[in-house]
Amino acid sequence: MRDLREHILLYAVTDRRWLGGESLTEHVRRALEGGVTMVQLREKGLDRDACITQARELAVLCHAYGAPLIVNDSVEVALASGADGVHLGQGDMDPAEARRLLGPWAVIGVSARTVEQARAAQAAGADYLGSGAVFSTGSKADARPMDRETLKAICAAVSIPVAAIGGVNADNVRELAGTGISGAAAIGGIFGQPDIGRAARTLRLRVMEAVNAGRTRPVALAIAGSDSSGGAGIQADLKTMTMNGVFAMSAVTALTAQNTTGVTGILESTPEFLKKQIDAVFGDIRPGAVKIGMVSSAALIRVIGDRLRYYGAKNIVVDPVMAATSGARLISDDAVDTLKAELLPLASVITPNIPEAEALSGLSVRTPGDMERAAEQIGDRYGCAVLCKGGHSLCDADDLLYDHGTFTWFRGVRIRNPNTHGTGCTLSSAITANLAKGFDLPESIRRAKDYLSGALAAMLDLGAGSGPMDHAFDLRGYFRQEAER
């Protein structure tokens, strides 16, 4: 099943009454330029062949704008035209039969006016619902407006997205705020306006206001040093957390002057100012998970430990950063001892690479068995889970989780990309984001590894040294996989 939320934000339903001598294709082009995210071909007056011809033309246009084309009612026309799917009314073909004929990747929408119809459509394989008419509409004169509570109940009853339909325009759509809709469909609110592109742009913003009103999202905090080149440190943390669906906050432990070839300077925050940052965050927007990265001095580490204990912070991920990818040392010897005493016992999980695992365990790590012994020793000593990262030419891209007596291997495929600046920061931040979203530790690690693999596979190539990954790579395929899990 596809996740259609990004596409049903604003979808336009065609109606030839508004053409005024112009072509339907030109009207749809203006709507797409204005920001329409999906188009439904609703042409009850056309015969089969004319409808197929029109659908073929619109499919090419819509796909050029990245928008699906949906055909109203007719699976036959959808199959013959290259359209992306169908929208079915309650008296049309059963959604399960439409799915069988159109295939697993087809988009199937269903009209639903009751909770029972909504649940039945979802059970039959619908990707989204169109619910209404939410306002009086001229396209269906006999349609009784749906009351707000019914729309809200339908949205709450299903996990698939719901688009409000019927009489929607820029003046009234904000009345639907708080109902749980994921988008809206419009006919006259777009095609009945003097400037179709402008009407679509305005309506899209109004729909976004209604969809997002009162919206919250999971929150995570990154406590780490800044990387002026943007590939690692707090910059990588914020990018990664955002791309993994959480609101990201930060407390900066140090400024660094660095690029892909090395670190040329470090300017620490004072302990007093780091305390103020952490207090400001916890005093207003409490994070659901905390990632700790580069902390170069014992005094700063003690502040972090003190404030996290004070606030009873949960889901703490410690990435014990000891050296940059370029080899520059980022932490003093006394700070390593303080890290062990202050932060590792607070951690839900720590994420050492092979050299860091050796430093924390005192063992030489050369084989998978060595990884298990080192992780077990670290975990038992500090009472936390340990994700020992393969890499460094050991175990390809396989990582080992030791969690209170249990070993779990996470198999991976090494991406042949020499640009690995910030991989450790990225993995630990992605784990933190997924813990903040409520996933357990093993699932958070699986999702984080998938994200890291995608960022590496994007093969970004910047800088003269080991460059950064593309944290904002095209996530559409990644999120589709997430939705299917």
Alpha carbon gyration radius: 27 Å
Span between N and C termini? 10 Å
Give the class-level CATH name of the largest domain. Answer: Alpha Beta
Low-confidence segments, given as residue ranges, are 476-485
Count of runs of 4 or more consecutive helical residues: 17
Report on the structure:
By secondary structure, this protein is α/β, with parallel strands linked by helices. The protein folds into 2 domains: 203 residues, TIM Barrel, CATH 3.20.20.70; 266 residues, Ribokinase (UDP-N-acetylmuramoyl-L-alanine:D-glutamate ligase), CATH 3.40.1190.20. Helices cover 40% and strands 17% of the residues. It is built from 17 helices and 18 strands. The strands form 3 sheets. An 8-stranded parallel β-barrel has the order 1-2-3-4-5-6-7-8, surrounded by 7 helices. It has an 8-stranded mixed beta sheet with strand order 10-9-13-14-15-16-17-18, sandwiched between helices. The C terminus is likely disordered.
